[in-house]
Task: structure prediction
Amino acid sequence: MTSYNVGVLPGDGIGPEVTREGLKVLQAVADLEGLQLNLVDYPYSSEYYLKTKELVPDSVIDEWRTLDAVLLGAIGHPDIEPGLVERSVILGLRFGLDLYINLRPIKLYSANLCPLKDKGPEDIDFVVVRENTEGMYSQIGGHLKKNTPDEVSIVNGVYTWKGCERASRYAFELAQRRAAERGDGAGAKLTLVDKANAIRPHDIWTRAFAQVAKDFPDIETDHAYVDACCMWMIKNPEWFDVIVTTNLFGDIITDLGAMLQGGMGIAASGNIHPGATSMFEPIHGSAPKYAGKNVACPLGAISAVAMMLDFLGETAAANRVENAVGDLLRSGDVPSVDARSGISTSEMGDMVVKRVRR
Ligand code: IPM
Ligand code: MG
Result:
């Protein structure tokens, strides 16, 4: 029996509730596919920090490296300095495990979920490859004369050739794989999104991307500045197949992308280092106002489980989960993928489990 060691960080707010449903689905599919799961729980969260003043110690990051994958719920708490625990846990995982790809699929399962008129599932099916370890998230910078009228605040955007190259290469390979899986003769297309007109150092992306492109002559390439990308995502989302972009732009355009899918409640992501321990999470936050009410939509967390299974090479199990979510949303039984759907967090998990077993 194949067995996997999976770290679980439910985190804050709605994190524990949606993670519980993700694990429910994971266990159901593991039983069906004959997979053995060893779940290792980690308490790191804002709540835990408030109680213990403890952030993630380096020894735990080393321990995470020995796992097959990590599942994360959400981090964030209104009573704590913004970003303190997020940087320790989320960025601790991303930077600590060098998870240089943040893979964020934007797939609409049913037209009723989409806020755009005249757009349906055939128009909205693309993937954002967000560079995940550098850019404006470098943490290099600081304040001078803080809290005085002369305060100076500096943050450095860091773009390395290695970072741009490996993200671009991953995106080209993904575009190739998607075209092969579609098998419909529709060509693969990869769009680089940056702001190399106003932020000239972004042209390291232009050059690294162009160099990698030489290894993929069959893939059509395109380019958009990030502002125009936002426009095209609304106007002509069908133009996109795979997008590769910087850390910050990827953060921003994937919230926009989540809305195209129906909302933050369904968007999932994989923080990936190919061949090494990787982390999977819904892209939504801890949504404190919905915490503990059993109303949050768990489909993002459940889709993150599907991404984890795919990453682990458990394609059949991943497809079971992905198809179950797709079937459920296409059934018309789910009016929205948010806290106002009228379907509780646990009921939604049960609805997916039922379809996983079909
Ligand atoms: C995301 C989140 C995080 C980010 C925050 C919580 C640090 O917005 O995963 O998109 O900015 O990457
Ligand atoms: Mg974000």
The mean pLDDT is 97. Residues 161-182 form the longest helix (22 residues). The longest strand covers residues 2-11. The radius of gyration is 20 Å.
